[in-house]
Specification:
This protein is mainly alpha-helical and 86 residues long. 52% of the residues lie in helices and 7% in strands. The longest helix is centred in the C-terminal third of the chain and has 12 residues.
Length: 86
């Protein structure tokens, strides 16, 4: 079963769990990108990947995930979900 989350919902979730906005955990990144753990590992090694780790260990920069979503899916997350970016 696949679950999707809108950009606005993810940003609300992030702001409530982190003192620093704009970063997310690995599991949140997987959910945001709508990909498997094994594909995520492939993307991290890919030379064209736009995924950037944050300075906080085990976290990723949300803006880089937006860029990567568009690169791998061909459309922005907002276009794919029909939700406006906050």
């Amino acid at each position: 079963m696949s679950h999707t989350i809108t950009v606005g919902a993810l940003e609300m979730l992030l702001s409530s769990h982190h003192s620093r906005k704009g970063i997310c955990t690995r599991s949140e990144a997987l959910e945001f990108l709508e990909i498997s753990e094994s594909y995520f590992k492939e993307l991290l090694r890919h030379p064209e990947s736009r995924i950037r780790p944050s300075k906080v260990h085990g976290k990723y920069i949300l803006s880089s995930l937006r860029e990567e979503y568009k690169r791998i899916h061909g459309v922005s997350k907002e276009e794919a979900t029909g939700s406006p970016r906050r």
